[in-house]
Amino acid sequence: LRDLTIDLGHTWQSGRSPRHTGRLLGGLLARPTTLHKRPERPRCGRDQAPEAAQALDRIVRVVERSRYATPGSVPEDIEALQRDADLVAESLASGVSAKEERRAQWWPRSVVSRRSWRVEGLRGGVPTRERSRTDDDVVASTTEELVG
């Protein structure tokens, strides 16, 4: 959900609690629609997608328990959690314009904007890093590999 949120053009602040993050994401939910029938500015909020809001609440509870409960005390139903995550992801994607969703699919910010590091060599068994590569560097090298 973090990567999808970033891909759709929203910010993600890592220092937030799961509950606070859930409240912020709840404001971005929209009723799932197809790309072709989506309005340019979809209405967003927990009331627009109540099932997705409930799924988001369940995810938040699982994340809170996994962080703060005794290890092994959180029963996990991975399949139910995956269904909840899929529903929330669909509602988040429906909360942006069709153009923004296509951009997220074709040029995901969570992947493209991350720094790329090239391992230059080993010093004492630990990889040393060269400089960070910019987005332009990554695109140029990828283009060269595809063309060349």
What are the salient characteristics of this protein?
148 residues; two-stranded antiparallel ribbon; 52% helix; globular; mainly alpha
Task: Please provide a written account of the structure.
The protein has 148 residues and is mainly α. Helices cover 52% and strands 6% of the residues. It has helices at residues 2-7, 18-26, 50-68, 78-94, 98-106, 109-112, 135-147, and strands at residues 119-123, 126-129. Strands 1-2 form a two-stranded antiparallel ribbon. The two termini are 36 Å apart. Residues 116-132 have low confidence and may be disordered.
Task: State the gist of this model.
The chain has 148 residues and is mainly α.
Largest sheet: 2 strands, antiparallel
Arithmetic mean of pLDDT: 79
Uncertain stretches: 116-132
Helix residue percentage: 40-55%
Give me the secondary-structure category: mainly alpha
Counting DSSP E segments of at least 2 residues, the number of strands comes to 2
Shape field? globular
Strand order of the main beta sheet, please? 1-2
Strand content: 5-15%
How many helices does DSSP assign?
7
